[in-house]
Amino acid sequence: DYIPKDSPACVSSIAPLLHRLEKNQQHHVLVVDDSLTSRRYVRSLLERQYLNVMDAQDGQEALAMVRGDPRISLVITDYTMPEMDGVQLVKALRQHKVDGQLAIIGLSGDDDPSLTARFLKAGANDFLAKPFNQEEFYCRLHSTLNALDTERRLFHLANTDYLTQTWNRRYFFEHPQTRKNNGPRGLALIDIDHFKKVNDSLGHHIGDIALIELAKVLNRYFPDALVARFGGEEFCVLYGNNDQGFEARLNAMREELAATTWTPYDQAFQFTVSIGMVHGDASIHQLIQRADHCLYQAKAKGRNQLVK
Ligand code: GH3
Ligand code: MG
Ligand code: MG
Ligand code: MG
Hints:
By secondary structure, the chain is α/β, with parallel strands linked by helices. The protein is built from 12 helices and 10 strands. It has helices at 14-24, 36-47, 59-68, 86-96, 115-122, 134-159, 169-174, 176-179, 195-202, 204-221, 245-259, 284-300; strands at residues 28-32, 52-56, 72-78, 103-108, 126-129, 185-192, 226-231, 234-239, 273-280, 306-307. Strands 2-1-3-4-5 form a 5-stranded parallel β-sheet, with helices on both faces. A 5-stranded mixed β-sheet has the order 7-8-6-9-10. It is elongated and about 75 Å long. It starts with 13 loop residues before the first helix and ends with a strand. Residues 1-11 have low confidence and may be disordered. The chain binds 3'-deoxy-guanosine-5'-triphosphate and magnesium ion (3 copies). The site of one magnesium ion has 4 residues, from loops. One magnesium ion (MG) is lined by residues 191-193, 195, 233.
């Protein structure tokens, strides 16, 4: 294999490094190499940067690990390996995970100048020939991780609601679960009753807390569903399972909300919700239209109730 010949990376300013190291602790890196010596060496370089490191000795094992562990955010793979080579692994990984969720760096000790392009075309973010300069390895590692963090931050900003940290409308309508048009599913629209009064009598900041608390309760009751803030004080729950439990859970949640007294800033208040629920095999727009009609009826009948 190869023997590292260079000295440890030198760093001129400590602040960006500390910031990077703190972020590194959130990343899980998978090192794929058939050579134990190589794996150990790359592992030790990564561990020194406070990254969480795992390893695999071939492509199949690596694929299984990435499929089974969503925490893996970076794969560093060797090229020459038995069964599946590094470029084939990159292609397989890219079919499984789209760019932005997983970064890949290729490595190879083969003296083949076409490898860089082959790795990059297959979807790798970067490539390094072995033996590499340690400082160059760290530079490329950090720029790849910085790009990954930026992409994740953008994804978060584009798809979550800032106040309640639930998924937003954009995420809801772009989700494959929403777009698919076959099989029965449940959908509920949940709207806070007389929310204007909460704002008018207690202040907008208390209204905000009601929204944050409602989002938490929704996520606690529906960890297996898509929960999104549609706008204002209206949330939507898309429930993929074809069982009877949806309505019962919605009602249990509604009752819990009605029985709760919230006391932010020692300001006691209560609120209730009205729910429009539908279940069926229809397009998302049809389901929403029907649920909206049910919600309107729940309001008209006196609020704090579910209409289906
Ligand atoms: P109903 O029972 O018919 O639903 O009455 P309502 O007062 O809840 O409904 P309405 O649609 O008249 O008022 C909704 C209010 O929600 C008005 C708006 O100021 C408030 N709202 C929307 N978004 C926010 C937010 O992010 N924070 C706070 N505090 N209030 C919000
Ligand atoms: Mg090899
Ligand atoms: Mg309302
Ligand atoms: Mg409303």
